[in-house]
Every structure is written in structure tokens, then in C-alpha cells.
Amino acid sequence: MLVLGFLSMGQPVIAAVATTDQGAAAQTIDSSNGWLAWWMIPLTITALIIFSRIPDWRLKKPRLCDPAFSSTTGLLLFVAALMGGLLGANIAVHFVSPPLDGDQFDLAATLPLMIGSYVGQGVIFLLVPGLVLGRKQRRWNRRPMSWWRAVLAGCLGMAIALPVTMAVAQVTGILIEWSTGQTLNEIGHGTLLQIKEAADNPDVILVLVVVMVVIVTPVWEELLYRGMLQESIRSHPLTEGESPWIAIVITSLIFTTMHGGVVDLRGLVALFVLSLGFGWIYVRTGRLLACIAMHAAFNAFNILFVIL
Question: How many CB atoms lie under 10 A from the CB of residue 289?
């Protein structure tokens, strides 16, 4: 699976803090945003205090259900969906996207790449699982939250996770600059950088990419990573009956690896922390809708951050 992460590095993904773009020339960060960096420290402390006050934040009484598929089936489908997305993206690059010099993409090339990737995943994720899902009655150890409470929990989870991930990115960036002498860039995500550049002359392609990033990407990624991968790891014989944190951490490591081609080291560390939040809110609420809402809110914030 980790190998697939490096194979799919060219796929555009967005769930990452706005930090440094890999390989890009350094930019000067506007000093007027300095207050945001410094205020992350007290905001993070406040967020962690609030988090520690949430009932069962350690997930000792998680909302879990019997998965509708075996762990082996889920893991195989996860790999198959990744391969389907990779195949779809490659087809889109060669037959839809205009030829570009090197590995540089603009939004006009990124949009069909995203569509091809999601269509490829959808063929596997929607058609093949139909042969194995739904044959087993699902039993819950605790009743999941209602859908509206799950959405609210996801939005509140984003409010708590945001300052924490930004603080982690800030501290990691300081350590990288101190150890390497490298001057870090302001934006650390390839797609975010493209959106920022395209925002000067907005068009239909920009709108479509934003819709994909804020709506389609959270839905697909959470179905794939939390709904399939995390559940498969949790129900695996080696981890079954253990703390759900094991499945959350392993899933987050894989999720972070998959973003390695478009996010720098500072962003990857923060993304791992963010992914832990996605996994936690899913287990805490018992609803994929919660982590989808949290993911969508985070992506929307990042777009607003780079545009405004």
C-alpha cells in the first residue's frame, strides 16, 4: 500500500495546510499575517483543552459496528480502488489533458486528472463492492449519532483541529529551517498553488476545481480511507478487539503517504495530525458524514486562505 502512495503521487489532493510548495521558489510571506502564526499557540492550547473535555475523547467507548465486508476484502478493494484511480488519471493525462512541459500542471490539466482519478476509483468502489457488500447484517455496539449532529460534530472538530494542525506545521517548519537553512514557502500544496494563481483571472475551470476539492474529494477520500481502509484494519484479526486508535494511526500513515507528491514535509506532518482527527471523529460519531464534513470544511478554509 505504501508503494501505491508513491505511484499515485501525481494525483491532485488537497487536505493539507497551506505551507511550502515542494520544489517551488521561496516566496516572502506577508508580515501582516504574522499575528496568525503567533496566535496559533494560544489557540492550539485552547483547542487541546476543549478536546480533553469532550466525553470519551480517548475512544474507550467508541461507536463501532460489524463491517459489511471482511478485512481482507476491504483491503483488496482499497488497493483496487487506488489502482483504478491511478489508471483513470493516466488515461486522462494522455487522452484529455493538453501536453505540458515537464511535470508542471495548471488547473486546466488538473481538472481532467481529478475527474479521471475519481471515475477510475468509482468503477471499482461502486461496482465491484456490490458483489460482496450488504450480505451481512450490521450490528452496532452503540447507536451512531444522528446525521445532523454528525455534521455539527464534524464542523466543530474542524474548529479544534485547524489551530492544532497549523501549529504543528509552524513548529515543523521552524525545525526544518533551523536544521537545513532552507527558506520555506507560504503555500505547500500543488493544487492550492494552482488555485491561488488562477484566482487572479477566475473562470469556469477554477469553479469546477473548487467544487471538486470542497465536495467530491472529501466524500471519496473519506469513503475510501475511513469507511473502507480504517474499518478493514480495525476488523483485521491482528487488531480486532484492540483500541480503535491502532486503525486510526495506521490509516493516517497511509493517508499521509498518499499525499507525498504534492505536499512538503512540513505539510505532511501536519496532515498526519489532521488525519488522526478525521479518524477520531468517525469513530466518535459512528458516521462517515462527520469526517466528510470536517474534511470539506478544512479544504474550504485552505482555499479561502490562499485566495483571500
Answer: 23
